[in-house]
Predict the 3D structure of the following.
Amino acid sequence: MVRHNNVVPNNHFKKKWQFYVKTWFNQPARKLRRRKARAEKAKRAFPRPVAGSLKPVVRGQTLKYNSKTRLGRGFTLEELKEAGIPVKFAPTIGISVDHRRKNRSLEGLQENVARLKAYRTNLVILPRNAKKPKKFEASAEEAKTAQQKKGALVSITKEKPTVELVKITKDMKDFKAYHKLRVERMNERMVGVRAKKAKEAAAEKEQAAA
């Protein structure tokens, strides 16, 4: 409700509306431009993957985001060691390395080691010298059939939480949760009083015995 003797609100927001109209007539052309840019990027990166280097799966910071996973900066030295990949060799085959990050959990370490191993098994390393390929390099036949990877290198797999179903028993139904909570709160509150009474009773018993 309007109070006091003020001017009645009567704003004219529809004046000169044509000056404030925003148009997107360039949207189809931008779509084409983005497509061409992606194709050009893939051409420049060939035969390497379009997505770039492999990143680890990490947890977000703080209590708000640590339940969610995302791609991190690079793999730790411990993860590379577990996967059997030398630290200096990793960047040369498209694996990001972050020497500052530390593994805080065994699950996270195992997940990223599995990620590295999956990447390594599917990786085709073209030989520098086609006549003398090294052990870890691809043969001439494999090099010919190798294709450029488009899209995510190794996608993040999110497991759905499993719910355990339990049959409700008679004891569960008869259990009075609120009553139990009140009793336990009272027990906690009375610890000092009961201890004092027990001490006094023990002292009186000793006096009586003497």
About this structure: The first helix runs from residue 27 to 45. Residues 7 and 112 are 66 Å apart (CA to CA). The longest strand covers residues 57-59. The helical segments are 27-45, 62-65, 77-83, 106-122, 140-145, 170-174, 177-189, 191-209.
